[in-house]
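Throughout our pipeline, every protein is held as a single compact record rather than as scattered files. The remainder of this section carries one protein's record, kept here as part of the documentation.

===
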Amino acid sequence: MDYSKLKSIIEGLLFMAGDEGLTKRQLADILELDSELITDLAYDLHRDLEREGRGIQLAEVAGAYRLTTHPEHAPYFEKMAYSPTRSHLSQAALETLSIVAYRQPITRIDIEEIRGVKSDRAIASLVSKDLIEEVGRAEAIGRPILYGTTKAFLDYFGLASLKALPDPGHVSIEDALEEQTQMLFERLDERQLTLDEFAPMAQPQPEEEESV
């Protein structure tokens, strides 16, 4: 297969793999190539992205290749994460968030087994909103990412700690997810908050006008 085509395939595979990335061995198995060639392809792809000034870069994190954004672009990503159009949680995101909140630390695969559907987009949305974050790696094949909630999650739901999460009581495993998601919905209704209230502290807040 053409060398450039192989680089293109690797870029697509890493995009699909998301935050978990793919190890050299995983890429070698998928492409049926030796590890040394994978190393060369990954290095050349990294150089291509760098030379073309692309918005993503190829990095090796915890033994896996990942496509990541540039740290210097972080201020723009923060603006996107806290923009009004991205401040509300969808049903899928809230359902995923309830799973992480009550079962953390937890992997994407475990989340998807509980929900019964793919959850990549919901997880990415929650990470971009700073409601969940990577808290470690599971001791399993591929070392998948473990997700947990953030301090912003506690602020968002007005919780002093995770111990203050609403107690679903004695419900069956089948009903637990629906019950926990509903309780988070109710918590939001009580608080009537949006993510706009949790913009980065460095961002100046407009002064209130004095009443006349």
Remarks:
- The chain is about 50% helix and 15% strand.
- The domain at 74-196 is CATH 1.10.10.10 (Arc Repressor Mutant, subunit A).
- The first strand starts at residue 22 and ends at 23.
- Residues 173-191 form the longest helix (19 residues).
